[in-house]
Specification:
The protein is of the alpha/beta class. It folds into 2 domains: 249 residues, Alpha/Beta hydrolase fold, catalytic domain (Rossmann fold), CATH 3.40.50; 82 residues, no CATH class. Strands 1-2-3-5-4-6-7-12-13 form a 9-stranded mixed β-sheet, with helices on both faces. It has a 4-stranded antiparallel β-sheet with strand order 8-9-10-11. Strand 9 and strand 10 form a beta hairpin.
Amino acid sequence: MKENIIMAAILCVALFFPLPISCPAQEMGVGDDAILMSEVFFQSEGETVEGILLYPTSYREEGNPGVIILHGLGWTREIFYGESEETDLFHLRYNLADELCKRGFFTLIYDQRGHGGSKSDMDLVLMIKDAINAITYLQGLPEIDPDRIGIIGHSMGSYIATIVAGMDERVKATALWAAPATLDVRSLFAPLGELFPLFMAIANILLPLVDEIARIMATTIGTDVGISLEEGRVDLVGMALSERGLMIKHQWLYTSLYSILNFFDQCQEYNAANYVSEIQPNPVLIVQGTGDALVAPGNANLLYEAAGEPKELVMVEGTGHRFTEPLDKREEVIQYTSDWIFRELSV
């Protein structure tokens, strides 16, 4: 009985408080390139967020800078650390966290809602709060200097990073890759014109009903029923039944169809272009590929014009949304961003 009480107490502590940095860590790399990686957990708006914390093998007991990396739509935390075992550009990793660790940073990456290991659907408001709670988590670690925390985002992650940095002055440096100035879902339905509000009203009625039907079907005929369209090894789009409703899948994305529509609807209220000016007097770096077909380069110009000083805009010639074509551009962006945030968060 006593052992059961002790175990219950341990589980409660693990559930409601962040795990300390002294948790068992896995060493990655060899020699000067070696870094440590720990699985970490923190509470955020009813969700236990699972993340990884990467840090140098020779870290100091206190006073280390910290960075949070927010991945884009359809990706997960794994994309930003380690060497890629894949040869195709879609699965290629960015060893950004590794480079930050070499410069003395503690780097936190986690799966955003609707992605990877997250058990929740996409929700912009909650995803913003998750990032704010991630800052609080980092500040609570004894090894971290609470006044030297930065944030880096890519695509959707940069959209959220812009909003968070504009709302929370604890973010002392912000780097944005391929950042949308706005995510206006109405532009996708421009042909509807004045009928758009009616379309949204109908969708807000029908999609929850579709989710309820999907949940009932999932409990009766199982969750293995679904469709998937693939090109090679890339999962382009898929749908499946789930206890959470009718789910849409794309690579590592797994969220309900209704939540995606709701996410973009929330973007009308939380417009990144309205928050980037609030980042000042803290610095912001905007990195944009001139050949980006997903987030047009004009977004970077809009954000730069709206941002206060200090600010920097880097247009990377001849590369796209992932900075992987040509491949040497990826390394150029990683090194430049790592050096920039190191300078901005130096003592």
